Here is the input.
Amino acid sequence: MVLRAKDRWPYLFTAGLILIIILIPFHWFLGVKISLFTLVGISTMITLGLCLLMGYTGQVSLGQAAFYGIGAYVSAILSATYDVNPWLAMAIAATITGAFAYFIGYPIFRLRGNYLAMATLGLGIIIWILFKELDQYTGGPDGIGGIPNLSIGGFSFDTSMKRYYLVWFFCLAILLASQNIVGSRVGRALRAIHGGEAAAQATGINTAQFKVKIFVLSAVYASLAGSLYAHVVRQVSPGSFDFLESVVIVTMAVIGGLASIWGAIFGASTILILKNELLVGLGEIETILYGLILVLVMIFMPKGLFVSLKELYEAWRLRYARRGDKP
Amino acid sequence: MSQELFVQSLISGLTQGSVYALIGLGFTIIYSVTAIINFAQGEFVMLGGMLFYVLAISLGMPLVPAVLISIAAAALVGAMLYLLAIRPARGGSVVSLIIITIGAAILIRGIAGWRWGAYPVAPPFFSGDDSISFLGASIHPQALWIVGSTVVVAVLLHLFLSHTMLGKALKACATNRLGAGLVGINPRSMALISFCLAGALGALGGVVLSPLSTMTYDRGAMLGLKGFVAASVGGFRSIMATVAGGIMLGVVENLTVAVNWGPFTSQYKEAIALTILLLILLIRSGKLSEQERAA
Here is the structure.
């Protein structure tokens, strides 16, 4: 199959990105911290879920940190307290989170817009309170430590480099799976819902069902990310899953672009580099910056920073190409 | 539950509920005029309390000017929120406006935390610290100030909306924005006024509440959610229903905590309030989404 130049770009882009991801842990490549980019992988997974939800259903969840936290806590409790196999714990966590999102999804998605946002915000804080207060299971404010490493057979993911590749294996799998979902019939249905719910319904799309499905998907992504977080950082505490974390996830999605799959990586890495490299020790300046980013991006680039930059680039290329076509 | 505990919980509920009502009134006014839910509403409360502390304690200002300046400053922040963040994004989708007000909320919270630190502050009581006993329970004089100012403000707001030209213009905007524009009312000025009013109402809540329960820079989000519960009882339309909703939430919250059994303990107080929020939203979902579609 011969691809035209226009169609070859996405494949080259994907391949280049995967190459960069593979090379990042080698110190000679960019000289960046592996642990930071492991967290980028984890955050990308959560952000991606939210990007799908926001970009393709036009609804926002301000409680994604709750699903992230449920994944992390279920993995931590099962594997550290009850000695369950970590992989099994991860699967159980994803199942629990998915089932939870499914059961609350139907009633909650009868709401829309502002009310849905408020409901997810409230739900996120309720779950966070449970993490803090159910201390006989969750260790209260101190959380749970001593979470075992993940391992396959005798191979244990016990160094930061091994953990990095593990996380990015999951992250890329999820990114590629999402790209397929978006390009499929389901993706078209979701875009139709975003375009206009009544019209989508009129063409025979069960809008309620699709919204709940994508909500469950985003919850499962967040749960997997949470399980990986628990096994990578090896301790969990409620502070990582509070209201502010949900807002940070929204910020990542807003930077990444709401309907963009690959923008999620861009959003997650921008925020985490800001947080862990440029703003260390500045305390609340970080929060101020998130606030500014959210307000400014939404005023000037409502489609998200990454998508808007991409559109600017394409507009520029088009103009350039036209000028070139002139005899 | 003993009778004293019951009365005491009722009184605490009434007191806290009055503050929720003030916050809720801010939501109601902004939403009815602009169809925007202002997720930064709780931050006005925090700002009111923090500014009152800074003016009255750090700068040693007398009570009355400190109160008035705190409220005026929060009203100004409300105006800036509208002019700098909401108006430039006009025509934006509901989701972008949600994200903008959320962004503004954590921006205000971040500035407060950066400027004033994370310690709880306690501004002075309005009139001393000698509790009055009543049916075996004790009432703090500040609680009377809280309930009293809420009642006065609700009545004044009602009179303002139904008896002044400006109030009627706001009401006209709430009924039909396009129609109001056609008879010469500028909906943008009305939106600006609604944000100022909401800022002032929230700040008043913070000013009267914080001497009794202290204030920290990060309490805005939770207080905002509770005000939202109050406003959603009234469907974001009615002043009296919002006040009733706030007081109901305060009373229910305090009575369930007084049960002190199973999940009904003080550690889960906030979770109880949020569960009430979810229940109200789900019960009213049909009506609320109709409203959202019409807006």
Strands of chain B lie at 132-134, 137-139. The two ends of chain B are 46 Å apart (CA to CA). Chain B touches chain A through 46 residues (CB under 8 Å).
